[in-house]
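Mods, move this if it's the wrong board.
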Amino acid sequence: MGVYDENIEFLRQVCALAAQTVQRPNACIWHFVCIPRRVHSKPLSFMVVSATLIWGFTMKVIGITGGVGSGKSALLSFVKENYNCRVILADEAAHQVKEPGGPCYDALVALLSPDILNEDGRIDRNKMAAEIFQSKELLEKVNDIIHPAVRQLILDEIARERAEGKKDFLFLEAALLIEKGYLEIVDEMWYIYADEQVRRRRLKEKRGYSDEKITAIFRSQLKEEEYRRHCKLVINNSESLESACREIEERIRAI
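Not the wrong board. Structure tokens:
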């Protein structure tokens, strides 16, 4: 074995030991930097003159989607408590862009009038909903204002987290991730499934929704086959939360 081979083998062993020590799911170690060296103007062989150990914690972006009542919030609480991750809720991002000084505030007030404002100058969610409830055209205009801003905010947050390099995962939750083109943003999409009767029971018990309201919401969302077609992982959350959490644990170990 030559000098070059001995150095390479030594560094491989060092890197293997370091990788075992780190124990983080996205750790990768690379690369050896080698240059030729000459002694007394004669080639000696390649010698390792430096080794660069780079801990490449490549943050994975995972989209979490599913119908209303499927239990996405409970599963996100589990990953937030048990993994080194950031959770972004699209609904919260939508509220953020509507705040005074936010990218959507002036456009929404101009479109819907100052009547949608509270006394503190913030947009009142219920007043805005009342304005657009009867007009499909107005709803589309509001969505055209909000959705691009939410998407940009999310892209900015993903870029910031990746630049900081502190998180292993970023989970992005929204009911409309597939419809709004987030498949091209996330590394993989997970579908949280629960059968219809379970979802109806949850929505009645936790939110007090009527059967008529639940049916209307179900009709407005994607069909189950569409969710399954676009998502890499289907998590069954119809039964126990513990069972669904085990499915998440298995997938994260495999990433």
